[in-house]
Design brief:
This protein is of the alpha+beta class. It is built from 3 helices and 8 strands. The chain has a 3-stranded antiparallel sheet. Strands 4-5-6 form a 3-stranded antiparallel sheet. The model has no long low-confidence stretch (mean pLDDT about 75).
Length: about 120
Amino acid sequence: MRGLDSCPSQKVIYNAQQTWNCKDAAKDYAGAVYNDRASVVLCKTLVLTPTPGTPDPVSCYALVGTGTNLDPYAVSNDDDSMVFQGLASIGLTKDGKPLRPDLLKSAVMGKQMGLGNVGQ
């Protein structure tokens, strides 16, 4: 995910306030969005100069349904959700600035709600 580091800690609070292994929580979250709830998944990437041996950064957005009625206007921003839940953290530049300042509010809100990181 563009500008994010996956699983900043081994254990996270996930799924009704239970402690999970971060990788297992991320797999469960992705499975729910991409296999169970999404009617359409839109992904975008912008790579001006590809780096050999490095995967291209991609941001995905899932159009999710509400109940049995698929709502084409309910859009889940995957990057935002992963940061909010503590399944990913915002990467930093060499001088310590966030690579994704657009997600800072979600990171703070997730921590305030007691989601995410529970230590190593």
